[in-house]
């Protein structure tokens, strides 16, 4: 059970603002991996970012002690298994395609969902909410004329602060589909 906290007074609100949330707990030995594709961060910079995430936590409830992670290793130049004769891509991340991405697609297989993104840290003290956005779910497949290295976009005008944007790029894997 949780209680709603006023961001203005930092106290609990009126009566009846108690609510339930569902939580999942993993064993401390639980391992997971994630991928980073970048042309502008070197290994030392990435290690500093990961050290910061270890200290502060990751995710929506990091400020309450959730999202505690310990990074074990970084494997550079990992090659995902991809089709050498690709005619499509499958995104392993949620993303928002551009109009151009959609115009180049011959066939699409996808699911969508509405994301209600927020900002964190000191930005949340003024206005924690971004505008709702419709994303394509990870696992979406686009059959395209030619496969590119990236799809999706950075979405601007999502917050009252014009400098805040939403990352909405795909992490595409080259695949072959027969229709």
Quick structural summary:
With 179 residues, the chain is of the alpha+beta class. 13% of the residues lie in helices and 21% in strands.
Layout of strands and helices, then pairs:
Layout: E1 2-3, E2 18-19, H1 43-56, E3 88-91, H2 99-103, E4 105-109, E5 112-115, H3 123-126, E6 133-136, E7 141-144, E8 152-155, E9 166-169, E10 172-175
Antiparallel strand pairs: 1-2, 3-7, 3-10, 4-7, 5-6, 8-9
Oligomeric state as shown: single chain
**Beta strands, count:** 10
Order of helices and strands: EEHEHEEHEEEEE
Specify the structural class. alpha+beta
Q: Please tally the helical runs, counting DSSP H or I stretches of 4 or more residues.
A: 3
What's the number of domains? 2
State mean pLDDT (0 to 100 scale).
88
Distance between the termini: 49 Å
Description:
The protein has 179 residues and is α+β, with helices and mostly antiparallel strands. The protein folds into two domains: 1-76, no CATH class; 88-175, no CATH class. 13% of the residues lie in helices and 21% in strands. It is built from three helices and ten strands. The protein has helices at residues 43-56, 99-103, 123-126; strands at residues 2-3, 18-19, 88-91, 105-109, 112-115, 133-136, 141-144, 152-155, 166-169, 172-175. The strands form four sheets. Strands 4-7-3-10 form a four-stranded antiparallel sheet. A two-stranded antiparallel ribbon has the order 1-2. A two-stranded antiparallel sheet has the order 5-6. It is globular, with a radius of gyration of 20 Å. The mean pLDDT is 88. Belongs to the CRISPR-associated Csm4 family. It comes from Kryptobacter tengchongensis.
């Amino acid at each position: 059970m949780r209680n709603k906290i006023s961001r203005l007074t930092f106290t609990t609100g009126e009566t009846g603002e108690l609510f339930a949330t569902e939580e999942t707990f993993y064993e401390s030995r639980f391992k997971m991996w994630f991928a980073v594709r970048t042309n502008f961060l070197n290994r030392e910079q990435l290690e500093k970012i990961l050290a910061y995430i270890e200290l502060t936590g990751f995710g929506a409830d990091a400020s309450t002690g959730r999202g505690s992670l310990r990074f074990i290793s970084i494997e550079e130049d990992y090659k995902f298994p991809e089709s050498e004769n690709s005619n499509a891509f499958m995104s392993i991340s949620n993303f928002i395609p551009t109009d151009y991405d959609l115009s180049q697609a011959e066939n699409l297989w996808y699911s969508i969902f509405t994301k209600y993104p927020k900002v964190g840290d000191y930005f949340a003290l003024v206005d924690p909410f971004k505008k709702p956005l419709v994303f394509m779910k990870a696992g979406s497949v686009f059959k395209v004329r030619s496969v590119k290295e990236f799809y999706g976009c950075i979405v601007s005008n999502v917050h009252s602060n014009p400098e805040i944007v939403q990352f909405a790029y795909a992490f595409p894997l080259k695949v072959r589909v027969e229709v």
